[in-house]
Amino acid sequence: MHLMPSTHAGRCSHRLLLPTLILSLVVFGCGDDDDSAMDTGATADTGSDAVGEDTADVSDTGADTGGSGECDPGAPGTRPALFLDGSLASGVTEEPCMLTNGEEVMCYRIEIVGEPTNHETGPYCPRTIDDGPEDVGLWPESGTLYDVDGAFVTNLATFYDDPTWQLYNPDTGEVNVTDTAESCLAAAMPDAPEEYANFCVECTLEDVGGPSVIEYLIPIVPVPRDGAPGEIGNTPPGVSLNGVRIEFPADTDIILGAYNIAPLDDCGGHVNNGIGYHYHESTGCADALEQCDGHAPLIGFAQDGYPIYAMTGEDRVEPSDLDACRGHTDDVRGYHYHAASPGENMFIGCFSGEIVDAGGGRPPRR
Q1: What Å distances lie between residue 261 and 7, 129, 184, 199, 227, CA to CA?
Q2: What is the pTM of this model?
Q3: Span 25-53, pLDDT tens digits
Q4: Rounded distance, CA 28 to CA 141, Å?
Q5: Beta 298-302 vs 238-240: how paired, if at all?
Q6: Average pLDDT, the chain
Q7: What pairs with residue 22 in β-bridges?
Q8: What is the DSSP letter of 16?
Q9: Most exposed among 14, 26, 243, 261, judged by the fewest C-beta atoms under 10 Å?
Q10: pLDDT of residue 285
Q11: What is the DSSP string of 325-343?
């Protein structure tokens, strides 16, 4: 799949060094401030507070509707049964949790497998300046996704109006690629060694030890925020139906500041050493569940419990009444979000609902 002009969507190499992450409000130290390897921090909780005695199993580990190719009639809120077969590491449970406004509610605890169940990951970097769009991933710039092919690499100095850019050997045409686990981790650091300047940074799940289970606490019934929406910041906005973390915007300025390019794959994802494979762009790969009424396909669920749908439905027209968070309301789905267009380096703009407090998510014992 190629997006015009010279547009793909890529993936990032982000992987967790912890066996399990529990994502509540904020993922500390994990930023795509860390797409230069800043997703190395974990989460609000590393799992010490695992499912307790007051939890209840509420779902299977796969969804009949999600994996069957049938259309979804649509409904408000988070629906765990819609996750695709194989995308969950365990059954979804219900348990008490505390939101950032101090309210105690019931939440779903959802464990995703940390890799897509419906598509392959990669490719990312070209190996030579002769490689075409079909061999490479994508790079977002000013709202557009560009193929990181040989033509893009050889034109970088002009593209960014800076003669320092030189990602390839002009004598051999070979591109500088982080093609080992050691080099990918070194080049992905925000303070990468000088010898890793002018590299195409590519990490794979193998480089970071394979996929890691990541846990989310999501309100069963979304609680609208009073006043201003909640900022995304370094909080991962949500989770996709195919088992992948939906990430906050990649900090491309830090990557470019090191004279590196860290491509996404055609599905808008890549890998880092903090959280493994994750999405920064919505390019269609995560559009897991078609809607029976022609509405945009369901992608996943935000951390505040509202569903996230693709940007457009069968009419290919973006809704005109989206708010700052990219949400609106209809009679079937209630309030829900629509993902941003490829190249915008985001899924949603903010949280319209309350999310689980980063301090651990569970209310204090009385």
Answers
A1: 15, 15, 12, 7, 39
A2: 0.81
A3: 222 223 333 333 333 222 333 232 232 33
A4: 26
A5: antiparallel
A6: 83
A7: 45, 215
A8: -
A9: 26
A10: 94
A11: TSEEEETTTEEEEEPPPTT
